[in-house]
Amino acid sequence: MSLSLEQISSQLDSESSRDRMIALASLRNVSAEDAVPLIKKVLNDESLQIRSMAVFALGIKPTEECYPILVKLLENEKDYGIRADAAGALGYLEDVRALEPLVRAFYEDTDWLVRFSAAVALGNLKDPRARDVLVKALDSEEVVLQQAAIAALGEIKAVDAVAQILRFAQSKDWLVRQRLAEALGQLPSEKSVAALKYLEKDSNSNVSQSATFSLQKLAEQA
């Protein structure tokens, strides 16, 4: 049974974290305009799990209020997990104004999870201006950041970055190679096709299947 807005609002004030979590989840079928004022009620909840859910909800229930709230959380929140959630939610908004705060987070935040979320979000924005930041991320010592940067360069269609990502074709991490195979499918070039034919022979089936799928995508676009 779906809850009314009044019931959800009342349940968000419950002393039970389970009740508050259920109420927050009930907002998925509520319009953004009605949902955001209720989401704001639990942005400072004592439960980090509920706060995390609330931040995520702001990314998928976009109103004019969401962007400044998420930027403030990204830049000022003490908990790194919430900062990472805010970065991810900014990517979901697909608001190009988020480019600058996400770039700052990538360069300045001390936690790898926040930097990872910022890199993923930059890909979700699909803003080509993120190219240089994402290319820099390829040199990160954290493998997950390499994965995020490769995927994001594919998302922003950075064909001129193909040469920089091809060095990962022989990465020891199969997930890096899979992200490369997926990204190359969005970057049409002769080098991409050649690399994908190489990755089709990869010993990891996830990589080889991704390469085959990307080759099919490129062939359809030709």
TrEMBL record:
One of its GO terms (cellular component) is phycobilisome. InterPro entries: ARM-like (IPR011989), ARM-type_fold (IPR016024), PBS_lyase_HEAT (IPR004155). Keywords: Antenna complex, Phycobilisome. It comes from the Bacteria. SUPFAM superfamilies: ARM repeat. GO terms for molecular function: oxidoreductase activity. Coiled coil: none annotated. PANTHER family: DEOXYHYPUSINE HYDROXYLASE, PBS LYASE HEAT-LIKE PROTEIN. This is HEAT repeat domain-containing protein. It comes from Phormidesmis priestleyi ULC007.
